[in-house]
Amino acid sequence: HNLAWGSSNTNERGECLLNYIVESNLAVLNQGRKPTFQQRRGNWLREEVLDITLASCYAATKVKQWRVLDDPSASDHRYILFTISSVSRKETYRNPRRTDWEVFRRELETSFSKQGTSPGKGAEEMAMNIQKSLEESYVKACPETVKKTNKEACWWNRELEVLRKNIWRRYNISKRTGNWDNYSGALTEYTKAVRHAKKNSWRAFCQSIANVPDCAKLHRVLGRNTANVGGTILKEDGSHTETPEETLQRLLCTTRGPTR
């Protein structure tokens, strides 16, 4: 806690964190004293400013309209919303696999015929012209593709959408009546449904692996965090695997059949 970002008091950890923020030349973006944390236990309510938004001094000048929302967040912590005033740029790339090689050859032949071969040209100049022709032909034969970043979560489904709307409805009712039991029950049900949907989605993905590219994709996912390799899985006899090697072996047997 620290009064600098709107807490009700200042404690030792808050002082240490504030010293770190100052030494790191960071800016606190919190505005006002509206609680970011709200915990209910029956008629007991605890509210406090626990969540802090930090940014560099330059990035802080781009952040506008920082505020805490009243919308239910399926957590004791409330949503924090702000806008960033910057020019949005679409990220593009070229996929060599989508190159139209007929267009590439035609453009390259046209470029070479225009350049010709002159005895007065040096080897370095000719090499630069060839490189330029290759690059220009490739640009025309392989157009840019806009990178998509709005991928939806593969585990999201219609049931979760209904449960989330139910949370919003229960939240409004509880806010008017002061009885938060129904809202807490709906929130717990939604949280369990989200965990269940994520688990089922991951299991379905692993069971669908049937070729080398899919195995390589799974390898990349697990390779992002080495801690994932050491997990355990449930065997047919009700026991769990004890080593990472046994876990991987069981996964291979499940997705590809027994190995010899």
Query: What's the number of domains?
Result: 4
Q: Write the CATH fold name of the largest domain.
A: Deoxyribonuclease I, Chain A
Mean pLDDT across all amino acids: 82
What is the C-alpha radius of gyration, as a whole number of Å? Answer: 29 Å
What is the overall silhouette?
extended
Beta-strand residue fraction? 5-15%
Percent of residues in helical segments?
Answer: 40-55%
Name the assembly state. Answer: single chain
Number of helices: 8
Domain Endonuclease/exonuclease/phosphatase: 1-80
Protein name: Endonuclease/exonuclease/phosphatase domain-containing protein
Organism: Graphocephala atropunctata
GO molecular function: catalytic activity
Essential attributes:
two-stranded antiparallel ribbon, 4 domains, 260 residues, extended, single chain, alpha+beta, 8 strands, Deoxyribonuclease I, Chain A, 47% helix
Summary, kept brief:
InterPro entries: Endo/exonu/phosph_ase_sf, Endo/exonuclease/phosphatase. Helix content is 47%, strand content 12%.
Task: Report what the structure shows.
This is Endonuclease/exonuclease/phosphatase domain-containing protein. It comes from Graphocephala atropunctata. It holds the Pfam family Exo_endo_phos_2. InterPro entries: Endo/exonu/phosph_ase_sf, Endo/exonuclease/phosphatase. The protein has about 260 residues and is of the alpha+beta class. The chain has 8 helices and 8 strands. The chain has helices spanning about 10-25, 55-60, 100-115, 125-140, 160-175, 180-205, 210-225, 245-255; strands spanning about 25-30, 35-40, 45-50, 55, 65-70, 80-85, 90-95, 145. A two-stranded antiparallel ribbon has the order 1-4. It is extended, with a radius of gyration of 29 Å.
